[in-house]
Amino acid sequence: MNHEEVPLLTDILKDAPKNWGKWGPDDEVGCLNYLTSAEVLRGIQSVRSGKVFTLGVPIGHPDGDPIWPGRRQAQRFNIRDRGDYLAGAGVNYPGGGQDADDLIIMALQGSTQYDALGHFWAGDQVWNGYPAEITAGGLKKASIFPLADKGIVGHAVLIDMARFRNKPVLGRGETFTHLDLLAAAQAQGVTISKRDILIVRTGWIGSYYSTPDEVFYKDFLEPGLTYSPELLNWFHEMEIPNLSTDTIANEVTVDPESGAILPLHVALMRNLGITMSEILALDKLAEDCAADGQWDFLYSAGPLKIWNGTGAPVNPIVIK
Amino acid sequence: MNHEEVPLLTDILKDAPKNWGKWGPDDEVGCLNYLTSAEVLRGIQSVRSGKVFTLGVPIGHPDGDPIWPGRRQAQRFNIRDRGDYLAGAGVNYPGGGQDADDLIIMALQGSTQYDALGHFWAGDQVWNGYPAEITAGGLKKASIFPLADKGIVGHAVLIDMARFRNKPVLGRGETFTHLDLLAAAQAQGVTISKRDILIVRTGWIGSYYSTPDEVFYKDFLEPGLTYSPELLNWFHEMEIPNLSTDTIANEVTVDPESGAILPLHVALMRNLGITMSEILALDKLAEDCAADGQWDFLYSAGPLKIWNGTGAPVNPIVIK
Amino acid sequence: MNHEEVPLLTDILKDAPKNWGKWGPDDEVGCLNYLTSAEVLRGIQSVRSGKVFTLGVPIGHPDGDPIWPGRRQAQRFNIRDRGDYLAGAGVNYPGGGQDADDLIIMALQGSTQYDALGHFWAGDQVWNGYPAEITAGGLKKASIFPLADKGIVGHAVLIDMARFRNKPVLGRGETFTHLDLLAAAQAQGVTISKRDILIVRTGWIGSYYSTPDEVFYKDFLEPGLTYSPELLNWFHEMEIPNLSTDTIANEVTVDPESGAILPLHVALMRNLGITMSEILALDKLAEDCAADGQWDFLYSAGPLKIWNGTGAPVNPIVIK
Amino acid sequence: MNHEEVPLLTDILKDAPKNWGKWGPDDEVGCLNYLTSAEVLRGIQSVRSGKVFTLGVPIGHPDGDPIWPGRRQAQRFNIRDRGDYLAGAGVNYPGGGQDADDLIIMALQGSTQYDALGHFWAGDQVWNGYPAEITAGGLKKASIFPLADKGIVGHAVLIDMARFRNKPVLGRGETFTHLDLLAAAQAQGVTISKRDILIVRTGWIGSYYSTPDEVFYKDFLEPGLTYSPELLNWFHEMEIPNLSTDTIANEVTVDPESGAILPLHVALMRNLGITMSEILALDKLAEDCAADGQWDFLYSAGPLKIWNGTGAPVNPIVIK
């Protein structure tokens, strides 16, 4: 399909559900409002063994980091270390202490990260109807800060689509729907309940570290959820607060039906206010869930509180 | 006291307890080994109401960020936003989606952060006896990565020293000891148990936002815990896995007795392997604990998984 | 005067002379077109003694660098040096060579620099009538690149306004006009000829290094040339290709008559296409000119060829 | 040859000539001392037509920039531009002026640049015998600053080795000696005189822009001058102040005889104090020299005055 023939997301989604105004005109956290203390306690109650998993990927891995095409790899530099002390250029701390210090330059969405609700939009408005102009020079509304300040804590369910389809990793552009999620949940013996934090594994990010860059990024097309009005209704009615996956963009890169890029960023995040975290490391967690049969757990994520940020890196924690 | 007369930390601490080798020659997480599943479950069991608190400070706050003298303020820049789209310079995403994206330059210890165990040392060795040369160009051992990969999760107790001393904030260079912590705990009606994550509030970081820089940084001297052999023994015997405070360096900047800088970084972190997180925002949490009388809770922290990093920013989460 | 009462520069300058289109619709170097080979040779012919002066200021000076309020100081970091080799972390070059390497983060207009012709404008158009939208995300037209690719070489005259007024440095907001330049030239015994590169000393940047920051930047108001229709006509008729000064913005910060900020950036640079270099170190050169009575010379400047840049650092060279 | 069998540069060069101490124990500019006013005037006298050439390569070129393997590409970002003004997020300058501003992150040796004399060494000492420890954390001696402060101005000769060998570009690892330079000079009809600035064209950097990265960088091995005792004597006796080429490192990457990396960096720069500029754009200049038969000219270069820098970017200027 030619680029020009792709319909506008504002047209595709003109009848799609929206939560704008639902939590007042000043809301900046969207469906995180669903994560009440009751939901937090539901997460707590799902903990059984006390096993802990961290879901962030390495930043500055020697093999490179998986990153959306066009963003740059993070650069970390030592500012001071043992070498400076050996060369007589360390800090002369009374008592003789020595230290190492460093600095990083990184895209705020260049690793495991939360998107600000105002990070992606269609038309002239972002989440809750704020004019898109609030993004200029830094997000004055719907930035990552309110999400990070609140924290994302609740009861989560992991759906392992790769395992369900008997593959180590879903294929380039391979799609699935909410019905597939439900079928996989049934196969796993777990129930997706209202207000559950949804975590979906495709195997994609895990495959990065054993895939040459020229293959991983070639005709970049991630697997993932794909748009349909029914899928939107399901997320809406289920009051899903948060969607997290082990891909860079949480949905199939290009909607195979319309040709549009990232329609779910608009439909789920901008319209419904569902928070998204991306580039999660899910392989070890999935392995463990498959082993002990427990696919639900407490999820807690504290993205960095970047003032005006379009997103922020995060290392989410799962307690089973 | 003259700088030259300050005794060396290696001498001051020559009989101090060490946990080197306790968890094998390859250990990089130190006292986090104490945080077994049993400790995680003890944290889970302390949750009552489902209230959530995030302990990170803002990064890029308009009033500036509290930072150790000599480090630079973080710089965040938009790479793309609504302005680019208005000016015809946005990305031409099929379907008409638009996005905002940004980048940050920051000291990895320039905000609420975890220190790598190898970040500070005295003599020629860092935690577990690794030669200090492992820090050159990036920490090849005892970096932040293993701490971040494991995550810091357990049962925590907040001790509010400022409140105990009836002050909004402790004074410049004001010190306290483990005995003061115990007295404050008693006054709060909470018990510090073996393997508890210890969080101490001084009011210092909270005061930053209402204090002019020229006052906050003048003759920079933070309040905090101060060294004594008895204090070391207490931390050692209590198997405290982690110390977190609302100061930049978790201890009084200069030991008033010896004149040495940061002896507890050496005695607790480098020798015992106790992890440290610093620059926490504790005022709201303390307010709530004082109100409901619950000073213990589940603490979970996922510093960013910076490869070879000397530390990493973090936004810890407390669930009460 | 209230901010709201300040007239628009587009109104103030509605009858001001413009060189748009003079060198064709695709021109990006403006009055540098005046610097023909004949002008270069005129510069060459002014050389007498072979003395050389460099006009850049230090970048990363321990006392800080003079910079427009709001821009950040440059940060330079060693990536590798002797310390790494001592610590066994250097590069293992066959033959045993060792090296030091570094990196800089700097505002492209954060030191002695040339402005791109498209760097400053009023209304909807930049130099030569290009729509201001060409600046979005990087200057697609009238960037620093064409200026840097051409180079700025010609016959230059130094006018020392501070010396003319018997002051080490002009006062905060002190102004002067083309008539003052002419009077000073006469006092110096030098003639400003058509197509001369004009260099004006105020003493301002030189004073930075002995002035506390809180004084230098307080109510920031640099001395400099001030707008009048007559001044514009003089620059226009004299076909001045380039204006360089030892201030950060080459003109009095606020026009005392209208209250407008930087009218000459619009009138001289955007309308006439006169290139501007700023933050020059002129004290040593002026001292020498006063001593030997030679106030004209060959000037050559090669700003860095930054693709799409709004400006670029430079270290101009004078040969007398 | 195995890496271990490569002899040490300190052994290879143990009898090589050195200029240490020749200009006093505090010298930091080495052979630039040869560039007296007389040499500057000799350069001036070689100017005939007034043609100007700039020798810097683009920084941030859309096709990438040629860079030593391991260094990172420069990143330039707009901080503010027309988009911000359209979105209502510009600066509210009285009078309505608008501006574009940007920032760069770059390796200081990541483009056309001058090496500091202390940038590369063998053994324990850099230029003039300063201990290599002066490089730790920033070059305290023999940094780029003194070179930049002095400027590099003199009479230069271009030797076009590619043209002499009838090739568009020399081959991977292709070498030449001072005798080849002399033969090429003779063929060009130009004489290399004592104290001439030497500029050598190989075609290498010019080829970068039409060569895929995987070819350009594969088994990275640049063509260039190659070490011999006779070559050192020639440079020494000719009092060559400066060597500039259109390669990244000014000499064949690996000495084919010894297997050592960059012996001339040690022999010419560290031992003799000859300044080096690298990554020059020489194709247009060479084309012009071939056309008019004038291969000598005035050369002036003003590297940025980076405090403590290991090198600095530069855009040299040639006037014929």
**Any low-confidence stretches of chain A, pLDDT <50, length ≥5?**
none
What's the multimeric state?
homotetramer
Helix/strand/pairing class of chain A, anyone? alpha/beta
Widest sheet: strand ordering of chain A:
1-15-13-7-9-11-12-5-14
Q: How would you spell out the order of helices and strands of chain A?
A: HHEEHEEEEHEHEHEHHEHEHEHEEE
Please give the share of residues in helix of chain A: 10-25%
Approximate strand percentage of chain A: 15-25%
If you average the pLDDT of chain A, what whole number results?
A: 97
**Main sheet specs of chain A:** 9 strands, mixed
Distance between the termini of chain A: 46 Å
* Most extensive contact: A-B, 107 and 107 residues
Number of β-strand runs of chain A = 15
Task: Tell me the number of helical segments of chain A per DSSP (H or I, 4 or more residues long).
Answer: 11
Shape of chain A: globular
**Estimated radius of gyration of chain A:** 21 Å
